Amino acid sequence: MQLFAAWGEPRYRAQQVSRWLLQRGVTDFEAMTDLPAALRARLAAAYRVDTPSVLASTAADDGETTKVLLDLGGDASVETVRMRYDPDEPGERERATVCVSTQVGCAMRCVFCATGQQGFTRNLTPSEILAQVLHFARTERVTNVVFMGMGEPLANTHATLTAVRWLVSPDGMDLRARGVTVSTVGLRAGIRRLAEARLQIGLTISLHAPDDELRHHLIPTSAGTSIDDLVEAAREYIAATGRRVTFAYALLQGVNDSPEQARLLATRIRGIQAHVNLIPYNPTAGPGLRRPSRERVRAFQRALQEAGINATVRVERGVEIAAACGQLRTDYTERQRLALV
Ligand code: SAH
Prior knowledge:
The protein is an alpha/beta fold. Helices cover 35% and strands 21% of the residues. The chain is built from 11 helices and 12 strands. Helix 9 runs parallel beside helix 10. The longest helix has 15 residues. The radius of gyration is 21 Å and the shape is globular. The relative contact order is 0.12. The site of S-adenosyl-L-homocysteine has 17 residues, from strand 8 and strand 10.
């Protein structure tokens, strides 16, 4: 916008260019045919639209789930996943969700998460977040974007909010705000900023435990924040946006998956417009954690429901392609290392 003003161009030129870039995924300024030739040439001389190249890629579920490792240059790479879902109602269109990363690595150190074990390298820029969506949107229709890839979105709040604004802007990708969800490990200041942005997007808070002691063990960086604090933050978010909040709960066998723990969880989050999404642990190469049996997952879900809490089990996607957060990058790095020896 400022650039076009500085060049003495009218404001609508910026809108034309952002629509070419984000709605049609065009990377060549010469192809932006509704711009004057002189402006196209000036843009082409000053800028280049980079598209990250694919370092590794895997597919599962008959190609409905695809995961790519994108090269961001200088040794940095991130994972992005696209999942296609059947329509919820007959006659509706298929949904395609892109799961984006917001950081290279992550500083939160969740004990069950492959990215958590990689450590933190750097924040992504808004363009690097959008480039992940565009990677898929150039060749297929994308309806939903979830910030559930590598990294903690609310430890990179400015880039996350900027990317979200471009995703939902009519001059950007023009997605429905309801089709965008940010998932956070539970950073209160970030949740507050998201609420203040009043964007009508979905919020998921990763809880993973019904008591603070266990939660701090599973998320070592969470010590300053209690479950009560997060329930309060969720309440504020709902009041500010009118949107429901989801609590994510990764189920780990013998750690946080007993029916008693489900009942305790229900007492902690009762009374707000919340919903629990259970994620059976997706085994990573990491330490001795295990996924509970299907029966145990069902029993946990039932205990929540009987206590009046709406609970779903996340549809499993791409287990065989290591679709869990950070796994492809871990595998790739491992292969690189092996190739070097
Ligand atoms: N930093 C954000 C996004 C992380 S990935 C957050 O913490 O919410 C999205 C979800 O997947 C989080 O709830 C995260 O805790 C969970 N997750 C990560 N690794 C997992 C694994 N191996 N099995 C199950 N869930 C996992």
